[in-house]
Amino acid sequence: MAIEIIKEKCTGCGLCFKACPYDAFEFEPYDGNKLGRVCKVNAKCSFCNQCLTACKFGAIKEVQTGETADLSDYKHIWVFAEQRKGKLMNVALELIGEGHRLANEISADTQVCAVLVGNKIDHLAAECFAYGADKVIMIQDPLLEQYTTDGYTKVITDAIHEMKPEIVLYGATHIGRDLAPRIAARCNTGLTADCTRLDVKVSSYIEFAKKKTTLDISTLDPEDTSTGIKQTRPAFGGNLMATIICPNTRPQMSTVRPGVMQKREKVEGATGEIVTYKPTIAKSDIHIDVVDVVKSAKELVSLTDADIICSGGRGLGDASGFKLIQEFADKVGGVVGSSRAAVDAGWIDQSHQVGQTGTTVKPKIYFACGISGAIQHLAGMQTSDYIVAINKDADCPMMEVADFCIVGDLYKVIPQIIAEWDKAED
Ligand code: FAD
Q1: How far is the CA of 298 from the centre of ligand 1 (A)?
Q2: Which residues form a coiled coil (predicted)?
Q3: What is the per-residue pLDDT across 414-426, written as a single tens digit (0 to 9) for each?
Q4: pTM over 0.90
Q5: How far apart are the C-alpha atoms of 297 and 129, rounded to whole Å?
Q6: Could you check whether the bond before residue 251 is cis, i.e. omega within 30 degrees of 0?
Q7: Whole-number Å distance between alpha carbons of 320 and 336
Q8: Distance 313 CA to ligand 1 centre (A)
Q9: pLDDT tens digits, 316-342
Q10: 176 CB under 6 A from ligand 1?
Q11: Is 9 exposed, middle or buried (CB count within 10 Å of its CB: 0-12, 13-18, 19+)?
Q12: Closest C-alpha to 227, from 423, 69, 15
């Protein structure tokens, strides 16, 4: 897709400049009109088409180019290393681990680059290296101190245009979900949201793959010479998994939910290259002022980082059942989770919901109390280290994924566990 200016119709009035939110217009000299200039579209165009309606002279049109980018220009894997108040989000470290795995399968010289954006965040580079980044791209400016959609989008998009990464991964956090689609639009490339699995699409990597044990070569189509990644995510309410490719444009972009990918073992003292990217950003590029950041009560439910989660479902019978779950969680040092059925019934706030449309979790122990184990719930917790199912129904799907199955009434079982815990503490 491209935006084309019909020079014969353009009066050089600049209305398109005003309509364009991306600063994607410039003038170029032209003899054929009174002002002696016509408008020209630059690389910042994100094909939003606002200019088409703004132009009173029908001088702008959208054209399908059918062109494919020269994919060989794009190299390396970038991970948006999201930080808040100078602290890296866990998902950034998980994605560095995943990036490392993919890089190993793509080629020996593919690097994993952590992209750090903010102000006074130099100290975070060491942590990125310790978790497996080969390189850190450091983008700092006082205007980037607070996350703003405009500011982060601009500087990362500019860096992508300049350095051309092959793959960019973001955590599917509130910030990642806000940022990634905007950057994808400005780079005129695809984005697969909420991936649960990434694989290298490999026919041209076959020779390399033969040397690797992690890749199943029999799944490769030798006729298919395209490269890229296969991005898999649940679709149609989790009833099937869709695998999505981005064959014609680069970079390939995915958001990945926290807790899905594996962090690498931390290597203290690991080092790598730090590339300082000086962003071109002005106050006028940012259209909002962040007055204050207020942490909502909902966000205080930190399911993502919890080691132990005690979740309750419809089997609790009513809202008061969550008092028992809270008591249980307090006793074992856990956090309260829930199924969607309990949320939909109005028994607990949505911020506690685990699953496909809730939070994806990976605690050390997940207690599923009165939760049947619907596929959408399992999608958010089945990679927990240990799953304990407490359910009256010995044949419910949760029992199939559980490491420990307790068949019984949760109102009898949980008080017994609490009592045993008390005894052990004495
Ligand atoms: P139920 O399936 O009704 O199970 C209740 C269980 O409690 C049963 O197994 C029963 O045997 C047991 N039980 C009853 N009484 C007792 C007792 N006294 N002691 C012990 N056990 C007892 N669901 C999610 O959880 N998270 C999501 O993110 C999510 N996203 C969805 C997205 C879409 C698009 C759709 C269509 C659905 C989604 N769902 C999600 C809903 C999901 O399909 C199920 O409906 C839901 O998970 C069921 O919740 P539950 O297990 O608590 O209830």
Answers
A1: 22
A2: none
A3: 999 999 998 887 7
A4: no
A5: 33
A6: yes
A7: 14
A8: 6
A9: 999 999 999 999 999 999 999 999 999
A10: no
A11: middle
A12: 69
Say if ligand 1 is within 6 A of residue 394 CB: no
Which uninterrupted H or E stretch holds 197?
Answer: strand 197-201
Structure tokens at 253: 């972009």
Q: What 3-state DSSP class applies to 131?
A: coil
Structure token pair of residue 178: 């806000």
Burial class for 327, CB neighbours closer than 10 Å (0-12, 13-18, 19+): middle
CA-proximal residue: ligand 1, atom 52 (nearest) = 313
Q: Is 314 in the pocket of ligand 1 (CB under 6 A)?
A: yes
Residue nearest to atom 36 of ligand 1 (CA): 237
Query: 359 CB less than 6 Å from ligand 1?
Result: no
Q: Hey, which of 372, 378, 398 would you mutate to test ligand 1's pocket, going by the most ligand atoms within 8 Å of its Cβ? A: 372
Say how far apart CA 5 and CA 127 lie, in whole Å: 48
pLDDT at 182 over 90: yes
Give DSSP secondary structure letters for 72-88.
GG--SEEEE--EETTEE
